[in-house]
Design brief:
about 550 residues; alpha+beta; Fructose-1,6-Bisphosphatase, Chain A, domain 1; 5-stranded mixed beta sheet; two-stranded parallel sheet; 15 strands; globular
Length: about 550
């Protein structure tokens, strides 16, 4: 090992030990608050049919479950280095309701209540555990200005920032999160040796190496080629936990089995990706040249861990996020059908029954909801990705929009999801039912808004709702129920899509900030709707049953 690596490894160990100091428990939220918050999560047992898996793939899956359990430990530390000590104290004290809520939230902050602390009084740092909690944006920028050769490492998705002898340093994930990264790497290598699926074997071996280098490019490319019975996601992906800059990726895992008949049924939509990109309501010069391969997988979730399991459960995802991979091979959309069905039955329908006027309520459906989720994920892969700067450098739009990227990207995916569904209805890919689509789109909004408008998904929906209310496409009827004007919907959605796409295409940080500040607000109509939903579940609380 080189002298520099020895120093960094020793530093990483020191940082981990620093997080192991005893964390006192000085205050707990009232018990009735915890009881009320826990009631917002409907218990659900999620089970996937594994009977068609080969014996070798079942052995592989067991190893992957062990790796996913370590992902949970990693993410807990990414949220806050003090989390393991708080968790241990709750387990020793047998404070079951507080322990249950802590495990749902992956920390002492209520993600559905603007990160309100329910244990102790410490506010959640905007940068979670990725940066020193007292670090300012100005200090971060000053450190990069002082050390311009370190800018890429400071802004990397795969480094943590720590203050060492008064100066900020960027420490690679694979060093900062030892011994977990090494243990996960070993388990992935063992899983690769067990499977008889050649594509999965290749991906797992490359991903095993990536956990030791933080170079995920080759394994992301290999992930695009998975075509067997298991769909495996494991690694650092989304940047939403970093509310300071949206730079740092959080670890997560999805272990799934593929529903091949359902996947083939939806794959027809992916054949229109180039036409959908061409149909975007912006000038051709701003349209993406990214690779447009877009496999669609419908899966049953076996287990999830880490970032994706914190608070609200994921229904679908579109990966990888690396724009280099998207330019080369596109992206893959994965739909978690057993999760979607559980959410629709336990959460979505009670909300729609409470808030919608009679006609839109009569026209909502699970199939339209599921198709809308699909198109949301497909739309993440459309539109501007890498922006050419005046000096010729191509920069990821996320780097230009900084802390506003996540919310504007989720807004874009929602709006384009409906916009593109209308397009595919015209092409005959989906049954033509524009009103049913608009009704289902409206009916689903408050499931996300209830998560809090400071969160990327809820904030993105708040922007849409307020914008469409302003345009008269949505309105509140005389009984206070939500309704829509069918004639105004498509024009208003097209206009909103154009505005959001152009903010991304031009990398306009100032314009994006103004747009977000104007529309990501809790209007009186929104608040009245939320007040009516006090008894309705916000999301599901899954337990996973794995029968080999």
């Amino acid at each position: 090992m080189s002298p520099m690596l020895c120093v960094l490894s020793a530093l990483a160990t020191t940082l981990i030990m620093a997080g192991c100091r005893t964390t006192p428990l000085t205050r707990k939220a009232p018990a009735d608050y915890i009881t009320k918050e826990l009631a917002k999560f409907a218990p659900v047992e999620l089970k996937a049919d594994l009977s068609h898996l080969s014996a070798d793939d079942k052995k592989c899956l067991r190893k992957l479950i062990q790796a996913a359990e370590l992902i949970d430990q990693l993410f807990l530390r990414q949220v806050d280095p003090q989390n393991p000590q708080l968790l241990e104290r709750l387990e020793k004290n047998q404070d079951q309701p507080y322990l249950d809520f802590f495990r749902i939230m992956y920390g002492p902050w209520n993600r559905l209540d603007h990160d309100k602390p329910f244990l102790n009084d410490r506010a959640k740092p905007a940068g979670a555990g990725f940066y020193p909690p007292d670090m300012t944006k100005e200090e971060f920028e000053a450190a990069m200005a002082k050390n311009p050769d370190q800018r890429k490492r400071f802004e990397s998705n795969f480094t943590v920032i720590r203050r060492v002898k008064g100066e900020l340093r960027a420490i690679s994930y694979h060093l900062a999160y030892q011994p977990y990264t090494k243990q996960i790497s070993e388990l992935l290598e063992e899983a690769a040796a067990l499977t008889d699926d050649a594509a999965l074997k290749k991906f797992l071996r490359l991903r095993s190496r990536a956990f030791l280098t933080d170079n995920y490019y080759e394994s992301d490319l290999a992930w695009m080629d998975l075509n067997g019975d298991l769909e495996v996601v494991i690694g650092p992906y989304e940047v939403y936990e970093d509310n300071l800059f949206n730079y740092k990726a959080a670890y997560e895992a999805f272990l799934c089995v593929v529903d091949k008949p359902a996947s083939e049924k939806l794959a027809a939509a992916s054949r229109y990706l180039r036409e959908m990109e061409a149909h975007l309501p912006i000038a051709d010069e701003y349209k993406s040249s990214r690779g447009l391969a877009s496999p669609i997988k419908v899966v049953q979730e076996v287990l999830s861990a880490g970032d994706t399991k914190a608070g609200v459960q994921t229904t679908a995802f579109n990966l990888p996020n690396d724009e280099r991979v998207r330019e080369a091979k596109g992206s893959k959309k994965v739909m978690l059908k057993n999760v979607a069905q559980a959410k629709y039955e336990k959460c979505w329908i009670p909300i729609a029954q409470t808030l919608l006027a009679a006609r839109p309520l009569q026209n909502v459906s699970f199939d339209m909801y599921f198709n809308d989720v699909l198109m949301h994920e497909m739309s993440h892969g459309l539109g501007p990705g890498l922006i050419t700067q005046p000096n010729g450098e191509r920069v990821d739009v996320a780097k230009l929009l900084k802390e506003h990227y996540a919310v504007i990207e989720e807004c874009k995916a929602d709006v384009l999801g409906v916009y593109n569904l209308l397009f595919l209805m015209d092409k005959g890919v989906f049954p033509k039912d524009e009103y049913g689509l608009f009704a289902t789109y409206l009916g689903g909004m408050f499931r996300s808004i209830r998560f809090g408008i400071n969160e990327a998904h809820g904030g993105g929906v708040a922007i849409q709702f307020n914008y469409l209310m302003e345009k008269g496409a949505f309105f509140s009827d005389s009984q206070g129920r939500l309704d829509l004007d069918e004639e105004k919907m498509a024009p208003a959605l097209t206009e909103l899509a154009q505005r959001v796409l152009m903010l991304q295409a031009t990398g306009d940080y100032v314009g994006t900030q103004a747009f977000v500040n104007k529309y990501r607000v809790m209007s009186s109509v929104m608040q009245n709707c939320i007040d009516k939903l006090i008894e309705a579940p916000v999301d599901i609380r899954p337990t996973f049953r794995v029968d080999y």
